[in-house]
Structures are given as C-alpha cells and as structure tokens.
Amino acid sequence: MNPAAAAAPVPIGKPTPVPLFIGGLAFIVAFAEPAATLARDWWTDPNAGHGLLLFPLSLWLAWKRGLVAEPRPQPPLGLCLLAAAVLLRFLSGLAAELFTMRASLLGATAGLIIYAYGVRQLTRWWLPTLLIALSVPLPEVLLSSLALPLQLRASAWGAALLSLRHVPVRLAGNIIQIPGRSLFVTEACSGLRSLTALLALGLLVGGLWLRRPWARVVLVVAVIPVAMVLNAVRVFLTGFFAFYVDPRMAEGVMHLTEGWVIFVCALAILAGMTWLLTRVEDWLR
Questions:
Q1: What is the pTM of this model?
Q2: Which domain holds residue 208?
C-alpha cells in the first residue's frame, strides 16, 4: 500500500439537499398554523391591517440591507433559540394562544438566521425585524386594557377642549353629553389604531432618515403624546361640529373624514419632528 496514497485527503462531496428539505418541511409543518392565522388577521382584522404593509416592506428592507460581509454562524446559540421556539410553539398550541404561537414563529426564524449567519446578521436587519414584530397583533386582553385608558383620556381631553370653546358639556366616563346629543367614545375611537400606525411610521422614518440611536428613540417616544393629543382633538372636533353645525357630522362620512384629516396632520408633525432631529444631529456632529 502506498503511504502517500493512504495519507491523501478523502474528497468531500457536495452537501446533499435532503437535510435542507427535511428541515424546511419540519419548519412548515410546525409553524404553518401561526403563519396562516397571522395572514388571516392581517386581512380581516382592522386592528391588524397594518401588517399587510409592514411585512412586505420589511422583506424589501432586509433584501436591500443584504447579508453581512463576513458571516459568523453561531450554531449552538441558533439551535438553543430554535429549540426554545419549538417548545413555546408546542405549549401555545396546547393553550390555543395565538400571540405566543406567532412569537414562536418569529423566534424560530431568528434562530435559523443566527444558526446560519450569526447575531451580526440579525443586528444588521434590526429595522425589518422590529417592523415585523410590530405587525403581530397584541392579545385581546392587552388590547382592551390599553384601549380603555386611551378612551377615557381622549374623552376627558376632548371634553376639556369643548368647555374652552363654550360648549355645554358633561362627561361620564367615555360618554360626552352635549345639548341634544351624547357622544360615545368607543374602543375604535380610542386612538389605538392610529397610535400603532404612527409608531410603525416613526420607527421606519427614524431607521431610514436618522443616523443616531438616541434620535430614533426620541422620535418614536414623541409619537405617543402626539397621537394621544390629536385623537383628543378629533373628539373635540366631532363634538364642536355636532353642536355648532349639524349633529349628523358626528357620524358617517364626515366622522371618517375628520379621522383622515387628523392622521394627515399627524404625518405632517412626524415629518417636522424628523426634520428637526436631523438638524440637531448635524449640529452635534
């Protein structure tokens, strides 16, 4: 036997696609239900409709950012995260809890990315990752607990503004009583939808146009009081027009039009805050 031949390295063949196919099939079987219910809620639930825009936008942003120049796969960490996501998927399936099922889907995807490319890749995709996370609807219990304080706050601020404009008003919880009419600030009028949309827009605008993390945080945090104040202004306008112009302006097309006008004003304020923060960034450079 030739020693040189014995010492020669054994050629390694090309990786077989069978493990990749089996892994992909297992992923689909495990997470098909949370993905399908998430897509259904995006299409049918008004509170989750922003996911129809955020999800494809996130995929496009991830594609534009691309992969890191020197990937550093971290299989142990990725497998640990993937195992935790699979366990969470199993437990949430037993409890039929949609939010944790969808969180397990996001966790498993993050685990696969870390396994193949490392944490640096996930950091590089921080903006699309956060946008996708925002597209996952919150649990109904949490939504209700958030909506009620917003309803009461909008009612109180709207009633205060009506009083400043000399409109006789009486406030009872989230019911604003004016002469000849009672305005009921429902959950849909709590401003939670517009707040969610503005948070996503603030995150997107900050990620694309602002350079420093502190400026992005300031922009996203500032969106919250802006959304609350503008929603109170919407309640005020509804009562003002119903009292001084026509009670029918508190419902139907005119009520929806007020909402769109207020949202456009919110976008203008968001653009102004972004411009101001870019000037501050240039000044601090």
A1: 0.81
A2: 142-284
